[in-house]
């Protein structure tokens, strides 16, 4: 799985610090790339080729980080065995580069494996002339597969994906996940067409990339709006709501340790936004850790009362509450009634966050469906009768129900339903990923046994042992077991080893 997930020390606040530009010796931009691990960059083969033939034989190219402050530069060379030039039938065009320096504090591009996905809105960042430091293309759309690649339509009029964008990550607008890499442009200046190679195809060409593929990035923290009086009963309700939010939203495969203590309760009455922020900071520092928002924001739970009675309710909401949730904390805000301006603003944020979670859930469901298809193809290819879980059908139905409910469901209930569906989708994906790995390991073992059997049969043939009846019977038994995917691989392995031992005995006797 991915080596780096989430923001770590040294992150400057850019949401995509992994973006890089490749340059030739004169400083001219050749194209884009993505940091995957701390010293690995993914780009297009033709981008490196543009630096000159010497780059293909080991000479370094210059890499500049455009998503980091001061835009640091380093040198990079092509990793042996990780060069896939583009073919005439729209395949390949991939290169992995080894950086001369390591960047352990920069999170890698959040690659996500999917099949062809239509109509998802994406953005990307490239280096067309004369934009030396890059330019964005926003609201482009995935149109559908064209061979191995996927057509990418840029909105016109406006900036479009063109020469200089090759190697750029194609980023899902709703979730921030990287769905693929720009590989080429269409030469018609009026069409606004380009093509990307999806992560799934990148991994097929360069399996080493698979270690950096994971789920969509986690969304910012949870905002919970509660309408009611500030009495002890509501405060007890805060604790219940907080625990439920943490429990439901915890993702499988993570090492989050939930804080079982009561959430920090802050009263904003008669306080300025600065005073509320200072009070929150003191409470977090004393109860958890001074750097908890940087290290484990998901473990921070704040319940805030009296916002309406603060000196600047809107500032408390925008400068404290929103900032906390944007950093990843869970914040529950209490309002006395539903009609205050602050309650309306907080409700709007709550709905916007639910909409983003809905899009993340949709991406997860697409991923589950793709994993199921991938396993079905693999099982059919190797002749395995392994049952493929069909979780995508139920998840798709739940997604459709949540989409249709929209405004008819209370935001708090929608949030919990979304979190539960999201957790189930991630659990289903993990199960499928493990099953795929088991089938892949079984397939490798199967091929190993068939190869071993054939090799020793060739030795027996060369030694003139074809008329040996015992050897012939042992060979036929083992080959019959390996004619299709064996129900019991170890039983098949024992038959192969029996034949191998018998051949060895004959050869030693000869």
Helices and strands in order, then pairings?
Blueprint: E1 19-23, E2 29-35, E3 40-43, H1 45-49, H2 53-56, E4 61-65, E5 73-84, E6 94-99, E7 121-126, E8 135-146, E9 149-153, E10 169-172, E11 178-185, E12 193-198, H3 199-205, E13 223-227, H4 232-249, E14 264-267, H5 273-287, H6 292-295, E15 301-305, H7 313-327, E16 330-335, H8 341-382, H9 391-405, H10 411-462, H11 469-482, H12 489-509
Parallel strand pairs: 13-16, 14-15, 15-16
Antiparallel strand pairs: 1-2, 1-4, 2-3, 3-6, 4-5, 5-6, 7-8, 7-10, 8-9, 9-12, 10-11, 11-12
Helix pairs in contact: 4-10, 5-7, 8-9, 8-10, 9-10, 10-11, 10-12, 11-12
Care to describe what's here?
Helices cover 42% and strands 20% of the residues. A hairpin with a 7-residue loop joins β4 (61-65) and β5. The longest helix has 52 residues, at 411-462. A six-stranded antiparallel β-barrel has the order 1-2-3-6-5-4. The protein has a six-stranded antiparallel barrel with strand order 7-8-9-12-11-10. The protein is globular, with a radius of gyration of 28 Å. It has helices at residues 45-49, 53-56, 199-205, 232-249, 273-287, 292-295, 313-327, 341-382, 391-405, 411-462, 469-482, 489-509, and strands spanning 19-23, 29-35, 40-43, 61-65, 73-84, 94-99, 121-126, 135-146, 149-153, 169-172, 178-185, 193-198, 223-227, 264-267, 301-305, 330-335. It has twelve helices and 16 strands. The protein is an alpha+beta fold and 510 residues long.
């Amino acid at each position: 799985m991915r080596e780096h997930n989430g923001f770590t020390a040294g992150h400057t606040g850019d949401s995509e610090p992994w973006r890089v530009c490749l340059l030739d010796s004169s400083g001219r931009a050749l194209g884009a790339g993505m940091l995957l691990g701390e010293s690995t960059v993914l780009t297009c083969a033709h981008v490196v080729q543009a630096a000159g033939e010497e780059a293909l034989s080991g000479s370094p190219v210059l890499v500049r980080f455009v998503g980091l402050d001061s835009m640091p530069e380093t040198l990079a060379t092509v990793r042996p065995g990780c060069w896939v030039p583009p073919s005439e039938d729209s395949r390949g065009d991939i290169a992995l580069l080894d950086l001369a320096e390591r960047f352990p504090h920069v999170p890698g591009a959040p690659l996500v494996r999917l099949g062809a996905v239509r109509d998802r809105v994406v953005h990307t960042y490239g280096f067309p002339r004369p934009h030396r430091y890059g330019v964005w293309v926003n609201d482009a759309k995935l149109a559908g597969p064209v061979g191995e690649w996927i057509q990418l339509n840029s909105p016109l009029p406006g900036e479009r994906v063109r020469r200089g964008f090759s190697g750029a990550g194609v980023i899902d607008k709703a979730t921030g996940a990287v769905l693929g890499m720009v590989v080429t442009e269409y030469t018609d200046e009026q069409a606004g067409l380009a093509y990307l190679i999806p992560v799934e195809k990148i991994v097929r060409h360069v399996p080493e990339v698979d270690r950096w593929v994971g789920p969509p990035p986690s969304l910012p923290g949870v905002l919970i709006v509660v309408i009611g009086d500030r009495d002890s009963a509501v405060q007890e309700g805060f604790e219940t709501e907080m625990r439920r939010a943490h429990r439901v939203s915890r993702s499988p495969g993570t090492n989050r340790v939930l804080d079982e203590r009561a959430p920090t309760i802050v009263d904003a009455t008669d306080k300025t936004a600065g005073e509320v922020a200072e009070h929150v900071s003191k409470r977090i520092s004393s109860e958890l850790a001074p750097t908890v928002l940087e290290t484990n924001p998901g473990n921070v739970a704040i319940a805030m009362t009296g916002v309406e009675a603060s000196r600047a309710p809107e500032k408390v909401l925008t400068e404290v509450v929103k900032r906390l949730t944007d950093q990843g904390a869970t914040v529950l805000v209490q309002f006395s009634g539903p009609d205050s301006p602050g309650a309306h603003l907080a409700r709007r944020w709550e709905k916007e966050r639910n909409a983003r979670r809905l899009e993340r859930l949709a991406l997860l469901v697409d991923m589950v469906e793709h994993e199921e298809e991938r396993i079905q193809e693999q099982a059919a290819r190797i002749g395995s009768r392994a049952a493929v879980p069909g979780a995508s059908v139920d998840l798709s139905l739940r997604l459709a129900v949540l989409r249709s409910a929209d405004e008819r469901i209370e935001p708090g209930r929608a949030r919990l339903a979304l979190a539960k569906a999201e957790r189930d989708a991630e659990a289903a994906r993990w199960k499928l990923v493990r099953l795929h790995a088991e089938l892949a390991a079984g397939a490798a073992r199967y091929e190993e046994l068939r190869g071993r059997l054939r090799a020793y049969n060739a030795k027996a043939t060369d030694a003139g042992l074809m008329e040996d009846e015992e050897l012939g019977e042992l060979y036929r038994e083992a080959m019959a077991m390996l004619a299709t995917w064996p129900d019991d691989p170890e039983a098949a392995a024992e038959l192969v080893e029996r034949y191998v031992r018998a051949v060895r005995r004959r050869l030693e006797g000869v």
